[in-house]
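note to self: dont lose this again. the chain is below, predicted strucutre after it. 91 aa total, dont forget to put it in the shared folder this time
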Amino acid sequence: AHSDGDVLLHAVCDAVFGAFALGDIGEHFSDSNPAFRGMSSSILVARALEIVRAKHPDWRLGSVDATVVFDAMKFGRARKQKMRENLAELL
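---
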């Protein structure tokens, strides 16, 4: 992961795969595979959803509950809301 947003999106991928016992993000998008190097985490989430929907076509994501913990940075309401909006649009 290259940013806080990446960490959150990678966690979403893992949660989606884990809910269906489909492994984790590394099993589907190995960081040793050059095809995934530098790929946007948003694309990985979209592909994770495609993988799950291919196996479970009637499944729809109901909600995502995630916590991002920072060591030193403050995370204002506006930035948090923007992150929510971006994630909702992606999902």
